[in-house]
Every structure is written in structure tokens, then in C-alpha cells.
């Protein structure tokens, strides 16, 4: 990947895991833990009027950490990882997942200038993100 931050997701072929998010009960503690454990770098980024912490290893972006909302934590949602699979068309994949017995947890939406994403529940109850690079964005191959 030659330490090019656009290569993590852009280099992943359709159908392969390209990104991973950590929804954390304590973003700061999670960032410190993974920096100490694996040497991952964490950098604050802005998107869609909010923010997330981008994760990098040896200069390559591969995922992010975001703070779970107080509402989600009060509802009992624990910290958790969510992998994303690269797809050519998020909307088409969501429709196919629904036809195959899956459920839609998060409607497709654009992450400002980067990707179009959605979250599904598969036919056996596992969560999975689907991720489409936006044309002209940093992850457009």
C-alpha cells in the first residue's frame, strides 16, 4: 500500500472487507488502548457535521473509532467492531440483502466526500456494513 492513505479502501476489491469501525463507549480510552497494543495512529476527522477518529497503521488508513451516543449506551449497546465490505452499488446490495432475508439497520447515506455506506443484519442476525467509494473521493480507485 506504500503508506498511501487512499489505498486501504481503494485497493480492496469488491466483495472484500475494506474498512472497520469501532463504536466505543470511551473513544479516548479505546484510542490509547489500540495505540499501545498495536501502534495504531488515531487522527480526528470531520464528516457530515460531526467527527470520527481515523485509524492508521504504518500510515495506511483502515478504519475508525467513534463515540457511542449516551442514548445508545443507556439502551445497553456495548462497544463493538463493525466490518465493511466494499461494494459497487450500496443501494443494489441493500435491496438484494433484503430479498435474501436480511434487514436494514442503517439506511444508505453518503459520508461526506468519501463513501456511501449502509448497515445490514444478515439472515443469521450478524451486523455488516457495506461501503461504496464515492466518485472522485479519496477512496475512488
* Helix/strand class: alpha+beta
Helix content: 10-25%
CATH architecture: Roll
The main sheet orders its strands as 2-3-4-1-5-8-7-6
Radius of gyration: 15 Å
What series of H and E elements makes up the topology?
Answer: HEHEEEHEHEEE
CATH topology: 2,3-Dihydroxybiphenyl 1,2-Dioxygenase, domain 1
Task: Provide a brief overview of the structure.
The chain has 141 residues and is of the alpha+beta class.
In words, what does this structure look like?
With 141 residues, the protein is of the alpha+beta class. It has one domain (7-133): Roll (2,3-Dihydroxybiphenyl 1,2-Dioxygenase, domain 1). It has four helices and eight strands, in the order H-E-H-E-E-E-H-E-H-E-E-E. The protein has helices at 7-10, 27-38, 70-74, 90-99; strands at residues 17-24, 41-47, 50-57, 60-67, 80-86, 103-111, 115-121, 127-133. A hairpin with a 2-residue loop joins strand 2 and strand 3. The protein is globular.
Write the layout of secondary structure elements.
Elements: H1 7-10, E1 17-24, H2 27-38, E2 41-47, E3 50-57, E4 60-67, H3 70-74, E5 80-86, H4 90-99, E6 103-111, E7 115-121, E8 127-133
Parallel strand pairs: 1-4, 5-8
Antiparallel strand pairs: 1-5, 2-3, 3-4, 6-7, 7-8
List keywords for this structure.
141 residues; alpha+beta; eight-stranded mixed β-sheet; 4 helices; globular; Glyas_Bleomycin-R_OHBP_Dase; Anthracycline_SecMetBiosynth; VOC domain-containing protein
